[in-house]
Amino acid sequence: MEFFDVCKVLTTHGLNGEVKVQIITDFPEDRFKVGQELQVKGTDQVLTVAQSRPFKNFYLLQFEEVADIDQAEKLRGQILVVSSDQRAELPEGVFYFNQIIGLKVVDDDSGEEIGKVSNIEQPGANDIWEVTESNGKKFWMPYVPNFVKAVDLENGEVRVTLLEGMRNED
Asked: What are the Cα distances from residue 28, in Å, to 11, 21, 97, 152?
């Protein structure tokens, strides 16, 4: 079974076992709702959310299985994950990163293979995709309809139209 990172436990908060987590998911309201089960990455330990609340750019979580600061301290630095069968269905045109990274990038006009999607960043309003060309050069492309014409998961490719100068063609 495949697992996906949801958050990283940063520190304890208070004396009753609450922890502060860095959010790694796009769906914190779903992942941290009461009753949601999260697993400690690389272990069989399952934690059930008893309480959660946003806190600045983080979340504070209380788990049914963690009663005090000493138990919470053991979670510091751990990544909490969900299994693939707990992932939500996404709306049309929205993808999980692991579905996109590794796809071939193909010029929509010529059919020429440009490279592969090697990374995704979320700097602001739109995601940007890093493309690594076969020669090892890299460039960034915004995930917007002007550039990304089609995402074809079945055939493992992204069809794009690039502007002159987007690629490092020197």
From this structure: 18, 11, 16, 27
Residues making up the chain, counted from first to last: 170
Question: What is the per-residue pLDDT for 170?
Answer: 54
3 state SS of 86: helix
Strands (E), 14-137: 18-23, 37-40, 46-55, 58-63, 79-83, 104-107, 113-121, 128-133
pLDDT of amino acid 168:
67
Backbone angles phi, psi at 151, to 5 degrees: -115, 120
Evaluate whether 31 touches 7 at the Cβ level (below 8 Å).
Answer: yes
Rounded CA separation 12/155 (Å): 45
Amino acid 130: pLDDT: 93
Structure tokens at 112: 């020429």
What is the Cα–Cα distance from 28 to 23, expressed in whole angstroms?
A: 7
Q: For residues 143, 85, 46 and 52, what is the CA-based torsion angle, rounded to 10 degrees?
A: 50
Mean pLDDT, residues 70-93: 84
Statement: the pTM of the whole predicted model exceeds 0.70: no
Is the CB of residue 120 less than 8 Å from the CB of residue 100?
yes
Residue 84 dihedral angles phi and psi, to the nearest 5°? -60, -30
